[in-house]
Design a protein that fits this description.
The chain has 18 helices and 14 strands. With about 450 residues, it is of the alpha/beta class. It has two domains: about 200 residues, NAD(P)-binding Rossmann-like Domain (Rossmann fold), CATH 3.40.50.720; about 220 residues, 3-Layer(aba) Sandwich (Rossmann fold). It starts with a strand and ends in a 14-residue tail after the last strand. The structure holds nicotinamide-adenine-dinucleotide (NAD).
């Protein structure tokens, strides 16, 4: 099939590569010239394991092209996939839909009557309907519009796109359903479940899934708050409840909480959307989910103060900037939020991250950045683990101990081999844990 992928960020670039690898002809469109130039040159403009190689492989088939705008080639397109950003609006909790609106306006002149437009971005329920009306105002026929939410996770994006747990197609007409089933035939052929729903349910599925995941993390972090107060251990608590199949052990890691370009903005947008529907109460718990999440970040600063007193001019090594490992994405990153709180308290923070340093430099031009863990830790009064990169779990506690001014580490992700660090002379404080009574190690 001929597919246009509109928006070439984490979602769009991965989708374009994956769909061309399974045999479709794909045009990727993004107004960002630098992004398009990089992709044309076979370079993914962000870090995603395996995607560079897959991009080059897809390009050698001749089935993948990149453009900054729709040109005559778009006239043959069967499926337009909307993959643009839906960030939090500057004026409230809701999603900013302007990029979706402009992509509709841009594609309209190239839309054939039997081509379908499919949204993949995460949106408030009712967006497909609104965009369909917007599109209808541009064309002389009734356009096809449906929603196909995306569940890929940064760090495993390619695998998640090629072999997702499920594909949700939100269709309101048989023609869109037929074309989407054809597009996903290579996935259906390897038994990936395809869940067919209407477009509104599809829009809701995505925000419901992200709300559930965020709630799970905040639930275990609430247990961590209580455990810290009474001297219990939330990591062992999570293990113990996780054996219950109804609860499960995934997404139950205590620490400085969730972040990234999706979960935080999605739960905020869901609250705004519910309020617009007059159903504020239905998801009012999400405000608490966010509160717990933000409290865990502040907890790190409280512990630092308890241990060091005034933080003015104290040197802190922040290990990690990305919101999670295997990505360079620092959007709404808990590690960076903790770093900002420590700056605000007067500390001199030096940041290390194996992949996200360029993004840190771009977003925080004045921040101290270290090229290695050793450089970050040298002379530090405090080390904070902010992202669960494997490199940090495997770091040499003795070598780092010889470099630090003060051997104090706050493990915000529960990844350090604590006994090793303690043997090397470090005082280890791990969020939600009682290491005195339960010195069990947790390794990534
Ligand atoms: N990143 C993820 O892991 C992930 C996972 C699932 C869903 N999503 C959702 O996917 C959407 C995109 O997320 P992302 O992380 O890829 O964002 P992103 O910011 O990385 O990329 C968005 C891209 O859209 C481009 N764009 C903006 N306006 C455009 C237009 N009119 N025409 C064409 N391109 C345009 C931008 O230049 C940018 O490259 C969001 O709704 C997000 O919630 C993201």
């Amino acid at each position: 099939m001929n597919i246009a992928v509109i928006g070439l960020g984490y979602l769009g670039a991965t989708t374009a590569v994956a769909l061309s690898l399974v045999g479709h002809d794909v045009i990727g469109i993004d107004p960002d010239q630098a992004k398009v130039d990089a992709l044309r040159a076979g370079r993914v403009p962000f870090f995603e394991p395996g995607l560079d190689e897959a991009l080059v492989e897809a390009q050698t088939t001749g089935r993948l092209r990149f453009q900054t705008e729709h040109i005559h080639t778009s006239v043959d397109v069967d499926v337009f996939l909307l993959c643009v950003g839906t960030p939090q609006s500057r004026t409230g909790l809701g999603a900013d839909l302007r990029y979706l609106e402009s992509s509709i306006d841009n594609l309209a002149p190239f839309l054939r009557a039997n081509a379908i437009v499919v949204g993949k971005s995460t949106v408030p329920v009712g967006t497909a309907e609104k965009l369909k009306s917007r599109l209808a105002a541009h064309v002389s026929f009734e356009p096809y519009m449906s929603w196909n939410p995306e569940f890929l996770r940064e760090g495993t994006a390619l695998k998640d796109t090629l072999t997702p747990d499920r594909i949700v197609i939100g269709v309101d007409d048989p023609h869109s359903e037929a074309l989407l089933r054809q597009m996903y035939e290579p996935m259906a052929a390897v038994n990936i479940p395809i869940v067919k729903v209407d477009s509104k349910t599809a829009e809701l599925v995505k925000v419901a899934a992200n709300s559930f995941l965020a709630t799970k993390i905040s639930f275990i972090n609430a247990m961590a708050e209580i455990s810290e107060q009474v001297g219990a251990d939330a990591v062992l608590l999570a293990e113990a409840i996780g054996y219950d199949e109804r609860i499960g052990n995934k997404f139950l890691k205590t620490g400085i909480g969730f972040g990234g370009g999706c979960l935080p903005k999605d739960i905020r947008a869901f609250q705004a959307c519910a309020a617009d529907l007059g159903l504020e109460q239905s998801v009012s718990f999400l405000a608490q989910v966010e509160d717990i999440n933000l409290r865990r970040r502040r907890r790190v600063v409280d512990i630092a103060r308890e241990e060091l007193g005034d933080l003015t001019n104290r040197r802190v090594a922040m290990l990690g900037a990305a919101f999670k490992p295997e990505t360079d994405d620092i959007r709404d990153s808990p590690a960076m939020a903790v770093a900002e709180l420590l700056w605000a308290a007067g500390a001199h923070v030096v940041i290390h991250d194996p992949k996200a340093v360029e993004n840190v430099r771009r977003m925080y031009p004045n921040v101290g950045v270290a090229e290695s863990v050793a450089e970050a830790v040298a002379g530090a009064d405090l080390v904070v683990v902010g992202t669960e990169w494997r490199e940090y779990a495997l770091a040499d506690a003795w070598q780092l101990g010889a470099l630090a001014k003060n051997k104090l580490v706050i493990d915000g992700r529960n990844i350090l081999p604590y006994r090793q660090w303690q043997e090397a002379g470090w005082k280890v404080i791990a969020l939600g844990r009682n290491l005195e009574h339960n010195p069990i190690e947790v390794l990534v």
